[in-house]
Amino acid sequence: MTIRIASDRLLIAVNPRNEQLWVYNGDHLRRWSFEHRAQLQRWSEDAKYENRPVPSFSERRRMAARKYRNRMESATHEIAAQLAGYAKQRHFSNVCYDDAEHAFCEGLP
Question: What is the pTM of this model?
Fold first, then answer.
């Protein structure tokens, strides 16, 4: 079984005949990534006008980054476990991962 990323889906699993077997869209990961990048950009813009060495919202920014990392790590582990379960259930002896495509979600771990 080969797993690959598409520009419009997080994961697509295909068999050796290139027939689609399993799809995971992962739209929520895209949304989380976009929202996180947008918030960081807004905080970056706001920090330009702070006259303090450490912006008043730096702790919120740090906590938001931690929350985002934890969410993405948890989600990717859960998705990987689902995929591994599927491969085991279908008795695939080999799973290849092709990550040549990166357009689905910027910064995806």
Answer: 0.80
